[in-house]
Amino acid sequence: MCETFRRSELTEFNRSMDREYKGMFENLTLTKFITGLWNMVNDPDTDHIIEWSKSGSTFVIRDSHKLFVNVLPEYYKHSSITTFYSQLKNYDFGKVYSSDIEYYHRYFQRDEPDLLSGIKRRVPVAKKTTQEGDDN
Fold it and tell me: Could you give phi then psi for residue 101, rounded to 5 degrees?
């Protein structure tokens, strides 16, 4: 039997998590993606879907289908697998090659919300617009 969450349950939990973590994030400038990811991974009610690894230095996606169908829409305006994985890549999260779907970022560590400010979105490298040999 497939377990699902009622939207009202997740929405209320998100509100309580926002209140709980608001003090931690007050002095940090964080994107919605990073705060949403932090709240998802720290939510004990979704540990069977997404959770911290035992070491706390990585997070593991246990059930990608439930993550995209039930959890992502509560934190973001989308439930797209492609968008979520692209965002992880854009913020330099690395994939840990193991039997699980596991990601790492040196500034995304369990019980270390102050490190989150070190997570920056990649800035695209501008292509050189002048032609080779052009001295102007």
Answer: -90, 105
**What pTM value is reported for the model?**
0.71
Q: Which two tokens stand for residue 119?
A: 């997570």
Q: Which two tokens stand for residue 6?
A: 């009622």
Whether the CB-CB separation of 14 and 39 falls below 8 Å is answered with yes
> CA 21 to CA 10: how far, in whole Å?
16
pLDDT of res. 7: 40
In the chain (136 residues long), the average pLDDT of successive 10-residue segments reads 38 50 56 95 96 96 94 90 93 88 96 94 72 55
- Beta-bridge mates of residue 9: none
Residue 71 neighbours by CB under 8 Å, 6+ apart: 5, 10, 40, 46, 49, 50
The pLDDT of residue 62 is: 95
Question: What is the C-alpha end-to-end distance of the chain, expressed in Å?
Answer: 68
Give the residues across from 60 on adjacent strands.
51, 102
Q: Quick one: pLDDT at residue 8?
A: 45
Structure tokens at 93: 């999260």
Structure-block tokens of residue 109: 């560590």
